[in-house]
Amino acid sequence: MKKICVEEHWGSPDMEEIRTQWRARTGFPVSMDPKALPLIPPRLRDFEQTRLPLMDESGITMQVLSTSSPGVQGLADAAGAIAVARKINDDQAGIIRKYPGRFAGLAAMPTQDPKAAADELERAVTQLGFKGAMILGHTNGEYLDHEKFWIIWERAEALGVPIYLHPAEPLVDQIKIYDGRPEFMGPAWSWGVETGTHALRIIGAGVFDAFPKTTLILGHMGEMLPYMTVRIDEGYEMTFHKKKLNKLPSDYIRENIMITTSGKYSAGALLCALRELGANHILFAGDYPWVTPKEAVELIERVPMSETEKEMIYHGNAERLFKL
Ligand code: MN
Questions:
Q1: Other CB atoms closer than 10 Å to residue 244's CB: what's the count?
Q2: Which of 208, 236, 240, 310 has its C-alpha lying 20 to 30 A from 77's C-alpha?
Q3: Could you give the CA distance from residue 285 to residue 269 in angstroms, rounded to a whole number?
Q4: Is 100 helix (H, G, I), strand (E, B) or coil?
């Protein structure tokens, strides 16, 4: 069975420099132990030594590539972000050209200048053949529900491409709840909370009422949203809201959001997503190099589902959404 995985990262010296600058500027504490992750830096840069052999070993036909964290969102200034996004996208297009049929790409976006980001998305899709964009969390503390960013949603809808919202660190002034417990910052918990909340902001602002054909992709089994659908609707209806939506929040979660299996999850978590969203809203992903293709495939294989559902998750949904 063909397998296309859609949240697979690569790293460049540009991204290492952005990470260094971001850490220096924000003072964000280091929570990841580099000793626990010795394979990540070399695997981010490599394609031939390890990546393609691991893909072949697990029957991965194609990886949809995107930049590693913190992405272009790690930069403060718009001019630098525009230049670097363009370079990263051109470099990524070069990788895709070098290995025909094995890779596709999501564009890096200079969201520091929303109009420039929309234009870069259009260039990446129409000239480089990319399949959508990836945005890594907030931009200098502003989230994608803000009206200044709606030009990006509008352009994505017009181009017919999805936007993948990838986890990022929260703002430094919001991490008090993790004081003394840095082990739950990052993949264990804070990234899911940050990204799930960001997605709810986008729903709450009415982005999907304004641009109903837009698709937002969330990794990591939907950043906790599938588990929370009924609770979110119930809470939403009993609180003051600034904007009256056409539908309930869970309707947008089911209609405008596609989730992916990136990261390490239990069979129960995938069963929950299948029940809540349906197989046609789930995309296969690993989160390479953090998760190997073998681990990504093992998750799908240990969950009871029909062959039709498996076909949708492994490749059918990706082919439809990304027009592969
Ligand atoms: Mn990732």
A1: 7
A2: 208
A3: 15
A4: coil
Give every CB contact of residue 302 below 8 A, 6+ residues apart in sequence. 267
Distance 276 CA to ligand 1 centre (A): 23
What are the backbone dihedrals phi and psi of residue 114, each rounded to the nearest 5 degrees, phi first? -55, -40
Q: Which residues surround ligand 1, an ion (CB under 5 A)?
A: 287
Distance 285 CA to ligand 1 centre (A): 9
pLDDT digits (tens, 9 = 90+) for 96-110: 999 999 999 999 999
pTM: 0.98
- Note whether 212 and 246 are within 8 A (CB): no
For 108, which DSSP code? Answer: E
SS3 category, 131: coil
Burial of 36 (0-12, 13-18, 19+ CB in 10 A): exposed
Half-sphere exposure of 30 (CA within 13 A, CB side): 8
> At 44, which CATH number?
3.20.20.140
The active-site residue, picked from 119, 179, 209, 287, is: 287
- Cα of 87 to ligand 1 centre, how many Å? 20
Is 209 among the catalytic positions?
Answer: no
How close is the Cα of 9 to the center of ligand 1, in Å?
A: 7
Name the residue range of residue 264's domain. 4-322
Do residues 265 and 218 make contact, with C-beta atoms less than 8 angstroms apart? no
Two structure tokens written together for 266: 């239990």
Cβ 120 vs Cβ 110: under 8 Å: yes
pLDDT digits (tens, 9 = 90+) for 148-206: 999 999 999 999 999 999 999 999 999 999 999 999 999 999 999 999 999 999 999 99
How far apart CA 3 and CA 294 sit, in angstroms, is 12
